[in-house]
Amino acid sequence: MLEEILYMLPEISLVLGILHLCILHLLSYESPKVYAKVARIWLQVSLFCLIVFYDRSISIFYFDNNSFTLLFKVLLILFSYQLLIMSSAWFSAENQTGIKYLILIFLSLIASNYLISSINIISFIISYTILISINYFLLNISSQEVSRRYMFVFSLILFLMLGSFSYIYITSNNLTQYKELSLFFSHTNNDFKLYISAIGLLLPLLFSLGIVPFHAVKEEEIAKSILPVSHYFAVIMPLVFWSALIKYKEVLAFAYKDNLMQSLEIISILSIIYGAIGANSRINLHRIYTHGSIYHFGVILMLLSFFNQHSTFSAFLYLLLYVLTLNGLYSVFYNLKSQGEFLSAQISLSGLAQTRPHTTRALLISIFSLLGFPPFAGFLAEFSFINVFLQYEKYLFLSIILVFFLILAKSYLEIVKTAYFEQKIKSYDTENKTVQLITLIGIMLIISISFNPFGIIEKLKDMFYVIYL
Amino acid sequence: MSLHLLLLIILIPLCGAFFAITAKSNSYSNKNVYNVAIWTELINTLLILYVFSMVNPSKTGIQIIEKYSWLSNPNVDILLGVDIFSMLLLFSVNISFLIAEIFMDRNIPRSQTLIASELIFISFLNGYFIAADIVSFYIFFSAVSAPLIILVSSYANLNKKNILVRFSIYNLIGAILLLVAIIMICNLKSNNIPLNTAGNVNIKGRMEYVVWLSIFFSFISRLPIWPFHYWISSINSSIKNPLVFIISNLVPLMGLYGFIRFWPNTVPKTIAVYAPFFEIICVITMLFIALISLSNKDMRYKLFAYTTVYYLLFLIGIFMPTNILKHNIGYSLFSYIIIVSVLSFLISHVETQKKQLNIYSSAGILCYMPRTSKCISLFILAGIGLPFTPLFWNNFIIISEIFNYNLVLGTFVMFALFIVGVALLEELYKQKDKTYATSSCIFGVDLSNLHFGICMVCILILFLSFFKPLWFVF
Question: Which residues in chain B come in under a pLDDT of 50?
Answer without folding.
Answer: none
